[in-house]
Amino acid sequence: MTITTEPQRATQPAKPPATRRRRSGVADRGANRLFRYLTTGSGVLILIALAAVAGFLLWQAWPAFTTGSDELATKVSFLQGEGSLLAYLGPLVFGTVLAAVLALAIATPLAIGIALFTSHYAPRRLAQVLGYVVDLLAAIPSVVYGLWGALVLAPLVQPIWGWVSDVLGWIPLFAGPAADPARVLLTVAVILAVMILPIITAVTREVFLQTPKLHEEAALALGATRWEMIRTAVLPFGRSGIVSAAMLGLGRALGETMAVVMILSPGLTYSFALLLAGKQQTIAANIALKYPEANELGMSTLMATGLALFVITMVVNMLSRWIVARRKDFSGAN
Amino acid sequence: MAATTAGPSSGGARPAGHDTVRALLRTVDTKRRRRDRTMTVLMYVAFGVAVLPLVSLLWTVVSRGIGRFDVAFLTHSMRGVFGGMDAGGVYHAILGTVIVTLGAAIISVPIGVLAAIYLVEYGPGHRLARAVTFFVDVMTGIPSIVAGLFAYALFVLFFGPGVHFGLMGSVALSVLMVPVVVRSTEEMLKLVPNELREAAYALGVPKWLTIVKVVLRTAVAGITTGIMLAVSRVVGETAPLLLTVGVADSINGNPFEGRMMTLPVYVYRQFSSGLVPCNNPNVACIPTINYDRAWSAALTLILIVMLLNLVARLVSRIFAPKLRG
């Protein structure tokens, strides 16, 4: 097309602009073109920003990768003179994933319950109020959750944790004696669960509301009870939505900082003991706690842990998007 | 079908037959009914369990925060306040939060809105647009502390290590804010009916003017709501500000120089200061003063967030485009 118009322009200077204008409909010149460049540029800028986040983290973390583990151990105060970068990162990743998975295990069933309650059980007006309450939960800043968790929830659950460790202490997870200020991972998991509840609830509720009315009515017409209707019509329809919502929640829980900083008594071990203090720590909380005392190489080490967190959350988020995209064609759920 | 099976047994008396049929159809065997009941109860319990922490949290924040929440608290900084002194406030922190958040909004609103316009008006069908959509989704999940680390790394490049000032916080927050703005603006622009655009084109209005004067004007209420919700999301962020803006006890209104206090960081700072040992009986001293200040600051923060949410909802309700009704 362009090849054929090119020689034409050379011979007849008047005609080609006219054809070009007709082809694009509206003239792509002046303010029009400027505006298009401006908006496209903003889109590209977002891509650049994301690449920059990864790039700058990698660039700042690089010294920590290249420095020998002995030198790193002597120069970075919080490595406590032993271990390499990987030995430092390992327990942190372990603690981060453990806390997030626990929070998810607590929050997901609850969120599904609440979402079903709002979509299929509650009267419409109550459901509306409930939707607002869930939004309210989402709007509360994490530092306030941390404050409440440390000063109200921790003393409140301490006797419960004590009882749990007495009764179920033979399970390694609940090995006692439960720490007295309950600054332990289980408390953190409870707080994180409360924090990710809104997002999971909001997404699953949207999916449940999209269940085709005909499916529900067909189930009811066949004599199903309300629960059977939900089990046979609503839940299968919303399965991919639930999974992706849970992954979104997991992403949030992985990156949560302040609530963990304010509650957890940190330690760097691969321990499953949820009721003992000073056993685990998460990446985000570790960065927030250690950065004031970090020298240049220490900051690099923290950047390296931050990069690990970035990669983990990125993978989780992409996985959740992928699940939604893959299932979208079948279920119609988003 | 049910009527034919019930027919012979009722022996011609139709009303009685109807009742048996109805009874037959309505009874579910006990096991199934019990399970249905159990699940219903479980749903209600789940609802209760979710509301419990919210009620407890709001109640604690209000009841413990209201004590110090007064004019003096809102109009004083922490300069020269030490130990268990019955003084100090959040003025510097409110100022810092407003400046840093405003900076974040100034950075991210144009980028976010323009990118959303690109996605809706120019993008469909282009590979770049698909990439932007995907990575905006991914960007929504960036942990806030990673955004803080990014801003720190970015500014260390220009100003050397150990640099702290307000603009850094704005950059960190805008990394978190841009994707939210893009998403909500995109949704709002998609709601604008195509007929409006076509009418404008038919009148010979250039595309950019159509977007600015017709599309944006139609969607402005929704976009404003989305932006305010995005602001309310980032206003409570703590970790990135802790890394970039730092902490301060004095008033600093200059986002380009020096550390600043922000409300969420103030809450954390007061909390981590802990209880004050009061040994000298001659000096006025409140052991729990730091916690009291933390609760009051938390109350201030929640009020600000609620206010933003409320105004956002009002904006969308009052200025909603008339076409949708």
TrEMBL record, chain A:
Report which superkingdom the organism of origin falls in. Bacteria
Q: Which InterPro entries has this protein been placed in?
A: MetI-like, MetI-like_sf, Phosphate_PstC, Phosphate_Transport_Permease
* Alphabetized UniProt keyword annotations: Cell membrane, Membrane, Phosphate transport, Transmembrane, Transmembrane helix, Transport
What Gene Ontology terms describe what this protein does at the molecular function level?
A: phosphate transmembrane transporter activity
Polar residues bias spans? 1-11
- What is the topology of this protein in the membrane according to its UniProt annotation? Multi-pass membrane protein
From the record, give the transmembrane residue ranges: 43-65, 85-117, 129-148, 184-204, 257-277, 297-319
What is a biological process (GO) this protein takes part in?
phosphate ion transport
- Location in the cell: Cell membrane
Location, primary (coarse class): membrane
Q: Which Pfam families match?
A: BPD_transp_1
Q: Where is the ABC transmembrane type-1 domain?
A: 93-320
Region (Disordered) residue ranges read 1-27
Listed GO CC annotations? plasma membrane
The family note in this entry says: Belongs to the binding-protein-dependent transport system permease family. CysTW subfamily.
Described purpose of this protein according to its UniProt entry: Part of the binding-protein-dependent transport system for phosphate; probably responsible for the translocation of the substrate across the membrane.
Q: What is this protein called?
A: Phosphate transport system permease protein
Q: Which organism is it from?
A: Luteimicrobium subarcticum
TrEMBL record, chain B:
User: Tell me, what's a Pfam family for it?
Assistant: BPD_transp_1
Q: How does it sit in the membrane?
A: Multi-pass membrane protein
Q: What is this protein called?
A: Phosphate transport system permease protein PstA
Q: What is the lineage of its organism?
A: Bacteria, Bacillati, Actinomycetota, Actinomycetes, Micrococcales
Q: Where are the transmembrane segments?
A: 41-62, 90-120, 132-159, 165-182, 214-235, 294-315
Give the range the annotation lists for the signal sequence: none
PANTHER family (UniProt xref): PHOSPHATE TRANSPORT SYSTEM PERMEASE PROTEIN PSTA
For this protein, the record's Gene3D superfamilies field holds: MetI-like (1.10.3720.10)
**Subcellular location(s) per record:** Cell membrane
- One GO BP annotation of this record: phosphate ion transmembrane transport
Q: Which InterPro entries does the record associate with it? A: MetI-like (IPR000515), MetI-like_sf (IPR035906), Phosphate_PstA (IPR005672), Phosphate_transprt_permease (IPR051408)
Q: Which GO terms describe its molecular function?
A: phosphate transmembrane transporter activity
Q: Which family does it belong to?
A: Belongs to the binding-protein-dependent transport system permease family. CysTW subfamily.
Would the keyword Transport turn up in this protein's UniProt record? yes
Keywords from the named record: Cell membrane, Membrane, Phosphate transport, Transmembrane, Transmembrane helix, Transport
Gene Ontology cellular component terms for the protein in this record: plasma membrane
Summary of the function given for this chain in its UniProt record: Part of the binding-protein-dependent transport system for phosphate; probably responsible for the translocation of the substrate across the membrane.
Limits of the ABC transmembrane type-1 domain:
94-312
Which superkingdom does the taxonomy of this entry point to? Bacteria
